[in-house]
Amino acid sequence: MKPVFLIVAFIVFSLQISAQSKIGYVDSDAIMGQLPDAQDARTQLDELIREWQSELTRLQSEWKTKYDDYERRKLMLSDQARAEIEAQLIQMEKEIVSYREKKFGTNGELFQKQDELMKPVQNKVFNLIQKIAKDENYDFILDRSGGVLVLYAKEEHDITAKVLQELINK
Hints:
Blueprint: H1 2-20, E1 23-26, H2 28-34, H3 36-73, H4 79-104, H5 109-135, E2 140-143, H6 160-169
Parallel strand pairs: 1-2
């Protein structure tokens, strides 16, 4: 009997708390897509990617040219010359893999540069969301982009436009 009373009391208490909560939501993808600072950061990252991809393509092209030349001439080469060229090709392959990992790998320069450029923008957005939430007395702010699922939300609680407007006006 006592456990049933505790469960009912908990449910009633939870309903009272949720009835008094003010919940808002934002679409951070929309904010980051429209915010000039984020667009500038994205442009810088895209330029770096193009530059690095161009260098990677150049390295791969050099390897391919050397390999094709080797394939055409390998029957005429001495064993020693073949071994030297094969070693050069292997070294070039290693350099290509190393370059790709250095620039685009898990902890590569792209990841670091993205963190360097986007972290200040993300902090600015997060701090403003917190400010609006406190100023307007929200209990919760959800982000509907990404992994958070919002099944229903009144449009009046969407503060995306407010966040974006204040960020642009600053």
